[in-house]
Task: structure prediction
Amino acid sequence: MEIKNLKKTANRILKAIKNKERIILYGDADIDGAASVIILKESIESLGGNITSVCFSNRENEGYGISKIGLEHLKKFTPALLITLDCGIGNFQEIDLANQLGFEVLIIDHHQVLSKVPNASIIVDPKQKGDKYPFKELAATGIVFKLSELLLKDKITKALKENFLELTALATIADMMPQEQENKVFIEQGLKTIENSRRLALRTSFQMELFKNLDYLNQKVAKLISILNIRDLKNGMPASFRLLNSSSEEESQEIILELLKKNEFKKEKIEKIIDEIEWEILGNKEPIIFIGSDQWEFGFISLLASIICNKYKKPTFIFKKEEKESQGAVRTPSEVNSVSLMERCSEYLLTFGGHPKASGFRIKNEDLDKFKKCLIENLK
Result:
């Protein structure tokens, strides 16, 4: 049994390659999104296709998933096949705009599907209605790995398959997908070769002194993921994509050392902000934690939400306030589905989506209080 529309997607991409159509890859800016983009990009290029542009979501400035700003930047390439990776399933208005601009949109995502789906040409998401694929908890990279096998067939070399499995293993662990069934297989196979990977960035990373001092492979992988998880966009490209795509040992080491410096700075800042939040919520009897500031860096809010949620065991909404809008990260205990909860209050949101226990949102500042009140009412 196959994931719904996966073969249809492979055939559409093969047609685009054959007809020399413009192909644009639009990924989420985390490890799962970056690895998905790399696997699909290298698969298409192996078949002689050309990727016209690669674009990543900028959550801080543009919101969750595909954005109008991103589409306006890309419209000069229309007509084109626009493939979203690890995002898109909640971007209804943005997909409508993409269609109007002249894109044909293929969505490849693994996030929770809302009450409807966007008006894309093809949608691949194991969680969508009518998908009978038995395992629903693949990372986006796991889905794209399967797509690469359909695209390349007997042209997928042992080296390329190993490398794609390494990226899939990393992304599956980083995205905290359950390490069972197919995910367990991906992780076991991918980690077999990762220390001696043919991908220069991975091999170089594990040869660095800070990795050699770690005794176990799982420690080294966790260290690498913590580095790749640092939010640092340059020229629109996230750190994870820049590092995994680096072409020399010097470049790889330079990126890693730069990110490690940022990580030390981040730790100090996080500790101070946690103190601020705990002082602010002291004595709070509300069933949720809902707090934001215009002083916090956007790159910190996901980690802040995770730390506060784990400590206080309450649905936690942490947001960075801008002049007119706020961007938020959500973390919830296992008994609360954050996406379903926000869907009940979606009238106040500009965009939202993600996983049941880890998601994000964008909202106008004028609607923050109404959104909070709605969340509390629906949680009860």
